Every structure is written in C-alpha cells, then in structure tokens.
C-alpha cells in the first residue's frame, strides 16, 4: 500500500494495477452505472440529514454531512471510472484522497484473494 502514497494515482494506474482480477464488478460497466445512481441518492440523502450522527457497523463515523463528502468522492471516482472505460479519457475530478481510498481498497482485495 505504501508504495503508491508518494506517486500521483490516476484512473489508468488503478486499471493497470488491479483490473480485471481484483475488480468487484469484473470490469463490467452496468454495475458501475447502477452504483453511480445509488451514490447520487446516497449523497443527497446524507447531505439532507445534515448534522445527525452517521452510524456504520454499530459505531459512529461522524456526521451524515461529513460522510456525504466521502461518498461524493466515491461518486466522482465512479464518474471518472465510467468515462475512462468508455472513452479512455481521464477526467480530473477525483481528489488524491479519494484515489488513495480506492487504491487501498483494491490492495486489500488483492491481499484477501492472494
């Protein structure tokens, strides 16, 4: 995981390093489009709930609005990922923090399957 911390992570780098072997959707586009729509709904829902406590796995991870920002990063990743899969164009809309979260998730999935 640490080797990627000092380098700039891109959609291309993630695809070249982890796809299709460690992709939960096996490089299919349809599940990504469904997840994109679900993320839109989730971001709006969490944002509207505002300062209420957000609970996940029986523990709090801050406010709903704070978690909406994390989910928004995932939404931007899905948007960039879908555009990359269709056009091979990288949209500069994903923060390095969001890229790092995705990279870490893929590394974890890779270690679990190895």
Walk me through what this model shows:
It is globular, with a radius of gyration of 15 Å. It is mainly α. The longest helix has 24 residues, at 64-87. It has one domain. Strand 1 (53-56) and strand 2 (59-63) form a beta hairpin. The protein has a two-stranded antiparallel sheet. It has helices at residues 11-18, 30-49, 64-87, 96-113; strands spanning 53-56, 59-63.
Tags for this model:
114 residues; mainly alpha; 8% strand
Compose a concise summary of this entry.
The chain has about 110 residues and is mostly helical.
> In terms of structural class, how would the helical and strand content be classed?
mainly alpha
The largest sheet is:
2 strands, antiparallel
**Share in β-strands:** 5-15%
- Rg, rounded, reads 15 Å
- CA-to-CA gap between the ends? 15 Å
Low-confidence stretches: none
Q: How helical, in percent, are the residues?
A: 55-70%
The number of distinct β-strands equals: 2
How many helices? The count is 4
Q: Which sequence of SSEs, written as H and E, runs from N to C?
A: HHEEHH
Q: Can you give the mean pLDDT?
A: 91
The structural domain count equals 1
Spatial arrangement of strands, main beta sheet? 1-2
